[in-house]
User: Fold these one by one.
Assistant:
Number 1:
Amino acid sequence: METLSHLGHGFSVAFSPMNLLWCLVGTTLGTAIGVLPGLGPALTIALLLPITYQVAPEASFILFAGIYYGAMYGGSTTSILLNTPGESATIVTALEGNRMARSGRGGAALATSAIGSFVAGTIGTLGVAFLAPVVVKFALAFGPAEYFSLMVLAFITVSAVLGSSSVRGLTSLFIGFVIGMIGVDLQTGQPRFTFGMNDLLDGVDVIIAAVGLFAVGETLYMASRRYAGKDEIVPLKGSLYMTAAEWRRSWKPWLRGAFIGFPIGAMPAGGAEIPTFLSYAIEKKLSKHKREFGTVGAIEGVAGPEAANNASAAGVLVPMLTLGLPTSATAAIMLSAFQSYGINPGPLLLTTQADLVWGLIASLFIANVILVILNLPLIGLWVRLLKIPAPQLYAGILVFATVGTYGISQSPIDLVILYLLGAAGFLMRRFDFPTAPVIIGMILGPLAETQFRRAMTISNGDWSVFYTHKLSLVLLILAFIGLAGPHIWAFIEHRRRRGPEHVPGDA
Amino acid sequence: MLNRRRFLMSTAAAGAAGFVATHLTPAFAQDAPQIQIFVPAAPGGGWDQTGRTIDQVLRSEKLISGSQITNVGGAGGTVGLPQFISQWKGKGNSLMVAGMVMVGAIIANKSANNLSEVTPIARLTGEFEALVVPADSPFKTAGDFVAALKADPTKVPVAGGSAGGSDHILFGLIAKTVGVPATNLSYVPFAGGGEALSALLGNQVAAGISGFGEFSEQIKAGALRLLAISADKRQDGIDAPTMKEAGIDVELFNWRGVFAPPGVSDADKAAMVTMIETMAKSDAWATECKNRNWTPILLTGDDYAKFLADDTARITAILKDLGLA
């Protein structure tokens, strides 16, 4: 109950007119930069850091938190409408969301992502307020061995996006591994696959790869198809927002997404991408409309991952506020903002800066409300984008993707990479190789490798760490069930129903 | 009052994809010069903060009328350095922020360019490093740690920043001084301070090495025990011996400084040194350093150049021992 009184006090800080204004500015700016690929919340907050010389700490953190949450909302808009993910956490949203948009359900996809973000953001923020000390304990129990097993579990999500042929899907996955390996190896400091080019030392940005493969590749493919006289985009079909059936199909994925996203976000190396992958795989497994996945677009595949990424955004704040641990680029920059005020974020932050922390948490609730109010009416405006005739729309997407990519590092090399990957995306599309596994490979491959090598360094080469650590073992068993379970189940079903005839002598 | 130009600059940058900021021309001009600051790292990191703090203090001390900050990030600064050398050549009003991390990155990445090609202006700040262990670790003193390391270095996994960075270099130096072969060390690199910290708090590793500021709050809260610091002398308010006092003959500051481009005139160089010296002696600079846990270790001109050569030699040697160069 102490928490409630703190929170009440927090609201009294956040509800001052000036702070509300900062919150509004932050959420609006955050939505805008979330829409642009390349310009993420971390960079924006970094560029706004000088503001800390001028305004009170509460105000600047409320602004930063608004930007952070806003970017998570905005990132999904371009994923859904233009197949151009604005943030790495919304890459999965593009998979089903863009298909929904093409089949005339763009409004519903945007609505389920906005409302799902609100629901999950609120659950996540409640988690920050009430569960932070418990969650952080659980999160710290995760060492390299556990992370590696979590990655193994995440790899089963690949099977959800493989498409019709496993060979083609796995080929894509391995292409992703190779691209993900480019750059300086963190464990040894040595460059790999850089071919002597300085610009490749930091590797290929996953956003550039996603924009290249999804947006540019798709655009080239569509352009090539137009000569065949096909135009696939259905402007808008049925209700602008969600139908009753779509509500029924969305609410469970929202909740599941939130409960996957929050704890993983709170883990120091959890991040926002893995929960979206896991949520997508789970929703695909549980959905009664499996046929819609990868064809006309399934709303569960948007609702779950969108909820997961917003809940993980809240989760990231748990180690930051309770222990002073920055676990994402954005959190790290927010912590450096604390330092410009002479506040050292750490385990004592909650007690020494109660006003600031609780004001921040309260403003997160407010930011969530503002964001859903801001985003729902915008849907009507956004979906009109799809009424633009295809040639102009696709030309616009190319311009948008190019400008956004240049914004990441102002490096012309990045543009070359973007268009090379775009060409690769076109060829993959043409020859029916799925592109999503490339991105999954790029994200999970290096993470799994790093954690595996760390675990082996710490254990001095002893493999048993992966099954003697209880958490790690549980995750590996879950991964095994996820991978082999459906096959075993199908086999048993098969035997039970048709066993006597098909396997004589065994009945 | 919010400084309007600054605010406009930042929002314009945020709104219109970063690069706009670097091309904005200030709306006013005074007697004080305009300068350009080149940060070979993405916004938000240590060098960027150094650059922006220099800008802030120079402005508040009225030493400059305005500045433009350009960020070219990547690979420990080795992406930005060639640009600074080729494209900024001879520009007497320009400064690049760099530091020890770049010296290491140049060696490890086998970069074509190095810091001997630019003009050293001043070493400004340093962060000394800390050797810490989890609160319930059996190591009570730096001596315990060294004894365990000597007994079997593979049993003492140490967490820190990226391979070949200042933390790894310090670990290598410690091992070298106490006579443990650097190749046997079990060093676990993490990308960011937060991840390394959580590995320590979760008892995943035996010890940690990183900038003191990364650990200071956890030490204060009793979650970590500080065994030794790499500073040259005891620090006020820090209850731990220096490495030298603890019997490890190592001293290390993760230093940061500023450089002018190659080919600037002696007059420009002298003016720049004077300006940075004035700034570094101001109260405003002292306050910023205190807030950010930076130790002011001012060294200018030729002394700085000599220091740079010595430090490069020391780092090259240790990276060779660690098998990274």
Note: The radius of gyration of chain B is 21 Å.
Number 2:
Amino acid sequence: MKHLLTTEGLSAAEATAVLDTADTLKQTLLGREVRKLPTLRGRTVLTMFYENSTRTRVSFEIAGKWMSADVVNVSASGSSVGKGESLRDTVLTLRAAGADCVIARHPASGAAHRLAEWLGSAGTSVVNAGDGTHEHPTQALLDAATLRERLGSLDGRRIGIVGDVLHSRVARSNVHLLATLGAEVVLIAPPTLLPYGATNWPVRVSYTLDAELPTLDAVMMLRVQAERMHGGFFPSAREYSINYGLSEARAALLPEHAVVLHPGPMLRGMEIASAVADSAQAAITEQVRNGVHVRMAVLYHLLAGEEGAA
Amino acid sequence: MTALLIKGVRPYGEGEPTNIRVTDGVISAIEPATGADEPVPADLPVFDAAGLVALPGFVDLHTHLREPGREDTETIETGSRAAALGGYTAVFAMANTDPVTDNAVIAEHVWRRGAEIGLVDVHPVGAVTVGLAGAKLAELGTMAASAADVRVFSDDGHCVHDPLIMRRALEYSVALDAVIAQHAEEPRLTVGAQAHEGERAARLGLAGWPASAEETIVARDCLLAGHAGARLHICHVSCAGTVEVLRWAKQRGVRVSAEVTPHHLLLTDERLGSYDPVNKVNPPLRTAADVQAMRAALADGVIDCVATDHAPHAVQDKDCEWASAKPGMLGLQTALSIVVETMRGTGALDWRGIARVLSERPAEIAGLAGQGRPIEVGEPANLALVDPDARWTVRGEELASLAGNTPYEGMELMARVVGTVLRGQVTAGRERIAV
């Protein structure tokens, strides 16, 4: 792997290799007092976030630090971006400054593809940490790691993805990865929040959450962004919550073994009831914990292989 | 007296090679070419056109020359050169300059600069509304009465979306014998739109530009134009559904005409996967089915003509992330080749048909008396000389435009304009003086 831009096109073997490495790293670090591996010593990893983010940026930063990489955080507001510098100039500057890997979040779909093109096939790797409404591949990988842990395997499992699929990069990355790993995906949303032609994706589409819950092995609740609530995509937050919120009563429809996921940040009471988010079925904090290991694994596959060859 | 001899050319690609004699800008004789060793009077400029096809000089209803305002991307001079090299003898310079061409002063400037340069007739398009803002009619009558003689008005780049403003513009234009050229895009349906709303854009996470945003405006404006008895022209038709609306309106007798761009005849949204903004254009590249519908409609006349929507952009406005990139692509020097490839190559149009869509119909729509005329004795010598067998590879940096944003970079195209004659003056290609 040179870059990680999408889960679309990622083979089952590649994805499984990353997940297996994440497992190994997790076991290796388990119970250690000093959680630090020397693997990426001397490597420089830059996070470049053009959108607000706490969990993803911190997760990547910790992942890099636990691998002993030098991690530098660049935020759009505190950099030359505020002076109007182009994305291309910024990333070429960061490469010249010695970045081995650039982890980028950007509001424009395809931004990570552009970065990878500008950086060329040699040298600096790009990890897409979320590009617009396109993809967020490490989120899908950490979701898959969490589901594997809880369910054993994804093969033949039925996973529901609920909410604003139209604007969700998490949903897109999950659709591709889950399908690749053999799961059956059901998208559950009002028609206004489903992408054009989603019926031709490797998924089933449903408008009714209650009808799907009893047969799901996992349900993935998506965040509803504030601007969507006022964008006319549904009549009101209340009606959305009534039809698509994971209330306690609704969670009771799930099979006992089913897992509840949420990429965060959660809107408690609207997307998901507090009691459900904090229940034993919910794996939300495990998602965050696994996120670090998965991102360590991604950095390992992108950066350590090269070192081994040298 | 000026004179020119065009030797060995086949008008419309028909019949035996001929020699076209031009005197004072007018075709004075068309005679059989008797052979290469035919004596030629000394000092008579000769254009050796053996093997070439002569077509009436092309007329582009939709060109962005960027002057005034963005002279770093194109000027009237560089755009004129690109036009001449593309076989054009008249172009219509869109009004979205900076300042906007919404008054007679700017219109006359554009017209005068075009005349000074003299490579192509540059006709300014006047804005329909002040500042292209869609709120208040620009002084259409003053622009029409100016030296620039403006007869085509458009807010291109923006849709005249307010139905009442559009109605008034159409009504008012009747007295000027002008045409309102609409950029058909319902703005409420295209907020933040980045690409054709289809499966491709949905996967790529690019906000959709639905076909219905074009179709609804075209339907509305056809009804308004019919009611006002006004002339309406639809810019850059891109959707199969729009063709059906146009067919219906024309059958009802609405005075509507329409253009399609070369890129909408060839390219599809399959190209978006790289996120390279060279493929970003408004209206967006659509599906293969839409492309087929554009070709069929151009062949059967529901779409009247080809217009380039030549839109030069600076490198920094294209070599960036998709959402920040400006929409538009170069078109003047590649239009003929794309039309030949998509229409003649498929048998949909012959050379006469290509003359119709690139020259005759656009000249009629714009009311240009001296353009789009038959290649006959007594007619103005406005000609495009085409090598039908040429194969050439497009290189943006080799094009005459200041900008290089061509989506055809590296593509091998068929047929090429090798000479252009504007009222007897060779504006592209090279004549030689006999010795």
Note: Residues 137-287 of chain A form a domain with the Rossmann fold fold (CATH 3.40.50.1370).
